[in-house]
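Amino acid chain:
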Amino acid sequence: MVLFFDGTMKMLVSPPDMRLPAAAALAWPDRLDLVSSGLGFIDPEKWDLSFREIDGSLFPCFGIACRAGEMGGAYPSLLVGADEAAVSAFLEGMIPFTAIPKIIEETLSGSRSGPPASLDEAVSLVGEGEAAAWRLCKNWRNGN
C-alpha cells in the first residue's frame, strides 16, 4: 500500500510473485506485458484484511528495501537482483535463511554503480546485483 501526499492510498493485489512489482517499478509509467495466472474471481467484500506495523527485527529485508528506495540511483535495481539471487540460493540450500539480508546488504554496499539513465540500464543493474549476490552466496561459509 502506498499513501500519497493528498491522502489517497493505493494497494496492489496480485499473485505472490515479486517479478510483478519489480516490473511495475521498472516500466513506470507503462506496464510490461507479463503472463500471469491472475487471481481468478475474487469478491473484495469477503476479504478479511488487517494490518500491523512491520517488525524490523523479524523482517530486516523490508528496512533494506526502504533504504535502497530512499537512496535511489542504482540501489533499487541492484536490490531486485540481489534479492532474487539470495532467495534462490536459500531455496537451493546454499545459504541459510538468515543470510538473505546479509547478502543483500553486502551487495548494495559493494556497488559503485551510478544511477540508470534508461530502462535498459536499470535492467542491466538488476543483472549486476544478481551476479554480485551470487558471488557472495557461492563464497558463503558460516556467516561469511
User: Anything to note?
Assistant: Residues 57-144 form a domain with the Rna Polymerase Sigma Factor; Chain: A fold (CATH 1.10.1740.10). The chain has a mean pLDDT of 87. The radius of gyration is 17 Å.
